[in-house]
Amino acid sequence: MPFESLGGLAAVAGLLGLCVGSFLNVVIHRLPKMMEQEWHAQCADLRGETPSTATAGSAEPATLSLARPRSRCPSCGHQITALENIPILSYLLLRGKCSSCATPISLRYPVIEAITALLSAYAAWHFGPTLQAAGALILIWALIALTAIDYDTQLLPDSITLPLLWCGLAFNLANAYADLPSAVIGAMLGYLTLWSVFWLFKLATGKEGMGYGDFKLLAALGAWLGWQMLPVIILLSSVVGAVVGITLIVVSRHARNTPIPFGPYLAAAGVIALLWGAQLTRSYLGLMA
Asked: Whose CA is closest to 35, among 217, 211, 157, 164?
């Protein structure tokens, strides 16, 4: 495909990524709160009380969803207008502050939008106008949301990881990234690998070293990329996680007993394996030979 056509496709994907990144900010903020409201409602139901999705002492509305109510400033309640919700541009024009009360807006919002746009543009340029490009966008967007949610809450929601697993298998019905047997084996091995590590660590120390969401995320990555990519993903995520963990302990005096979410490292390794996994594997095999 001509370079100019690829550039146009990347530009369109980048603009789409900006818009999706803005929506991902909503997912990252609201989905854990929606889960918490659902848990409170289930607990109330088990106690025989009238179920209510409102969380005690929470300012969040009882009917919180990804679509409603409209986004607003958490400090003054000012509703965000359409002009104040343009990805990145609005943040710059507002100088990073609420237009009503001048409360600083987290830098995370434009960062998530920019990262989503850049990765979307690169994925479109890398794969071209193919089924692989469409799947790569879905996978990247989901991994960005999971990364931020796990970083904030140490949760990897089933409402994202499980559909992601099935989407990977669906795309590989057409051999988008791996043949279907490799994808199925990848999902199985991905889950069982971390499940085995979890139980070995628990039997040895009496402590839980990771959450079940990590098992499901690695299973999803195996379903997308096939079992052949699992060693690359596990190695990359372990190395990055170890480096970041040691850095936090040394530099920030991060307590050794304080949990560090593993999902962001799995997600980062998954993106690297998606875009450059084949090259990394060939380079490694070449060095070994």
From this structure: 157
Residues near 282 by beta carbon (within 8 Å), at least 6 away in sequence: none
Q: What is the DSSP letter of 75?
A: T
229 touches 189 (CB < 8 A): no
Which of 38-42, 87-91, 141-145 is predicted most confidently? Answer: 141-145
Buried-exposed string 135-144: b where 16+ CB fall within 10 A, e elsewhere: bbbbbbbbbb
Half-sphere exposure of 105 (CA within 13 A, CB side): 25
What's the mean pLDDT in 77-102?
84
pTM over 0.85: yes
- Taking residues 208-218, what's their average pLDDT? 88
Contact residues for 238 (Cβ-Cβ < 8 A; gap 6+): 265
Three-point CA angle 162, 168, 174, nearest 5°: 150
pLDDT tens across 73-82, in order? Answer: 777 777 888 8
Rounded CA-CA distance 242/98 in Å is 38
Q: What is the dihedral of CA 40, 42, 43, 46, to 10 degrees?
A: 160
Beta carbons of 262 and 155 less than 8 angstroms apart:
no
What are residue 104's phi and psi, to 5 degrees? -60, 140
With residue 126 as reference, give the H or E element that holds it: helix 108-127
Tokens 């496709």, residue located: 9
